[in-house]
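hey so u asked for the seq, here:
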Amino acid sequence: MTLDWNTEQLIEQDIAHHLHPVTNLHRHRQAGPLVLVEGKGSKVRDSEGRWYIDGFAGLWNVNVGHGRTELAEVAREQMARLAFQPTFFGLATPPAIELAAKMHQLLPHHSHFQFTSGGAESNETAIKIARYYWALSGQPEKTKIISRRMAYHGIAMGALAATGVPAYHADFGPLPPGFLYLSAPHAYRNNPGLSEPEFVAMLARELEELIAREGAETIAAFIGEPVQGAGGVVPPPEGYWQAIGPILKKHNILLIADEVITGFGRTGQMFAQETYGFQADITTFAKGITSGYVPLGGVGVSRPIYEAIAAPDRMFMHGFTYSGHPVACAVALANIEIIEREQLWLNAAERGAQLLRGLGQLEAHPHVGNVRGKGLMALVEVVEDKASKKTFEPHWAIGQRLMETSRRKGVIVRCNDTGFALAPPLVITEAEVDELVNALGETLQEVLG
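ran it, structure tokens below
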């Protein structure tokens, strides 16, 4: 690999051979990629030498920022010592063992942890564990999974079926059966004019009615992101999780918290379960556990779940080749140490409040319908008409125009036809937040007038 990049050649090779995820491939074939080659803190540099604020922390995940050489050194040392051994068949390595113990400290309501390579694998694992738990508890008919519209849980087939965003389903064939969907706790779109407590009560009634209709004896688990992320950054109304949890417990339905995005400081606490004051039976995580330096995810389960699945006559027939990869686990331990040492959740809370204040000023724009977020997760929703909340038609290509313009102004955020989402590194500075907000304000003005 050379460090002297020929940008034109790289773009040609990319268009010729690289299949990009979540990308309009037709447009990409015409425009090519933005080639990024270096990062430092909250900023990244392209192959032509231009720096950008990484307003999306890679893909919600570079929590400690770019260029942490101590993480690279930890990876190098572990690779030199023992690059790989599996955790199948009772094998283990010190980093995997130590990381499981560390996760128990961070999530003490979970006794045991299995590791994966990312969020989709983690949610796939959680769904299987929930069903396995009920089967070994003598209730094998409890297999259905409740999810929510606008939810994003990954694109492996089980996780995809739990994902409540139709665009991810289109043309990929039939989804696995056994998945049920509720309304997102999205006040801007779903609240018919009720007070916040009334809106929560409405959502709780919807859950009760779904359980009554399907039969609690057929439902294994409810899976939910504490703050819905990729489907549109939806923080729940006050008291939502306090209303949902007791209903699930009453009907003997497990709660799976998908903390893939929210975990490791992003919402202003180490985990969003602390932010919102609830505890799940199963927690999934990924992204921020290594800040994206190497792929890693995982699943934590409560003691009762572990005791049930540790049956004397059964083998737990689930895992991935790279479950508990020693290099990834070693990097995760060092990454968590950085988060704790620098108390990055505090910066996420402070800079997140600043970010929302700044973005809130954009609501005066005639085409900004809603600004929402929690910690360092935020979204600016654009609409064609504020009164009716009508979205722009696809032929306007609003997302493409927002992306192109914001990049010209030196920021990288996630853009689509309904606006842009932000999730910068937890190390972002006060000045960088102001720079990010100003660039996005200028972008809106240029694209939407």
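The chain has two domains: 34-55+343-448, 70-342. The domain at 34-55+343-448 is CATH 3.90.1150.10 (Aspartate Aminotransferase, domain 1).
lmk if thats what u needed
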